Amino acid sequence: MSVLIIEDLGVERLAPVVLARLSCGVTCGGLRLVDLLEWSGADCFGLTRSHLQTIQKLDYPMLKDPRLANGKDRPKLVLSSRLVPSAATFESIRNWLFDNKSSETRWIYDSNSPDAEAVGVIHPTDTYEEILSIGR
Q: What pTM value is reported for the model?
């Protein structure tokens, strides 16, 4: 079971805080999303902006390079790195990983409003290889 954390295009709205750091490494209320992912016990992969890949490798060893994953495997969960690190987010991550009985693809949104943004997907249909081929 694995999680792929992606710095999507919305990460630019977090500037200037994320200019030189991974968005999942931003501290909010004493927590970082990367810590929540590590605590979840899942195998974690990170897809970050190209100029931060060395920082990811050196400062966040728990976030493996997705190119090292078996290309034919699918992550169980793909999440935006913009999720707010909180106790509620941690509980949601654990529920998405461990309590999801269905293998059906399901999108996760940041709210229930009509203009809600997708912030993740459970059981994506794409393999690691296909996700990496999309590019940035």
A: 0.87
Please tell me whether the peptide bond between 16 and the residue prior to it is cis, using omega within 30 degrees of 0: yes
Tens of pLDDT along 26-59?
999 899 999 999 999 999 999 999 999 999 999 9
> What are the residues whose beta carbons fall under 8 Å from the beta carbon of 20, sequence distance 6 or more?
52, 55
Rounded Cα–Cα distance for residues 104 and 29 (Å): 34
Residues contacting 41, CB < 8 A, separation 6+: none
Pairing outcome for strands 106-109 and 77-80: unpaired
Is the Cβ–Cβ distance between 78 and 131 less than 8 Å? yes
